[in-house]
């Protein structure tokens, strides 16, 4: 070493071998990120895959929170066509979409097809700006919300871009055969008997279809909805699952069950 370097190291308390004698003057960098205490880690403090510091975590599987939900999940696993009827807040749509995402990620199906009727609930959308797709976006928003809760927004956009996830109004389903797909028909109480007949006959090979709705909350004129009639006829068919959820299966705010009991 040069004399200048030896003098500098001597001032800083180091020996010729490069080791410092006074450890108090040395600030060590943490070797393991878990030594930082409350600092953020992509693996979490315990090394787990989910980090409690994250704003949101995405679970691969869901667990039923009521007997009705357990029955619905079991029916979806065992049957190719399931009808889920029940009041708002029972998790019908969420469970159906969660099962659809699970099947897609496992490679059981090649795509997810989500559909719901575009029925104006006492309001008009003609004034909304944009083309037809923009006008229909508010109707399809609940499906997007459920998807983003199961997938990250980036992952959802990528799957929609390559056609692995398709969201379409009921009117665009006629004439199609849905093979190797997981199909969810949401808000089916706003479908007529003939519309439901058309939708149900779209089922193709290696496909699963889940129809969700609440016959007591139809936005159609009285007697127009076909959901209750179709479900009653399917009760006699062993290969079709008809699951009727009740107020006890509501997993939203407890006031929802109380309100539905008196409204």
TrEMBL record:
The record's subcellular locations are: Cytoplasm
Q: Do the record's keywords include ATP-binding?
A: yes
Q: Which keywords does the record carry?
A: ATP-binding, Cytoplasm, Nucleotide-binding
| PhoH-like protein domain span | 62-260
Basic and acidic residues biased stretches:
9-37, 47-57
Signal peptide span: none
For the keyword Cytoplasm, the answer is: yes
| GO MF | ATP binding
Give me the ranges of the annotated region Disordered: 1-57
Give the CC-aspect GO terms: cytosol
- Please give the family membership noted in the entry: Belongs to the PhoH family.
- Which PANTHER family does the record cross-reference, listed alphabetically? PHOH-LIKE PROTEIN, PROTEIN PHOH
Name of the protein: PhoH-like protein
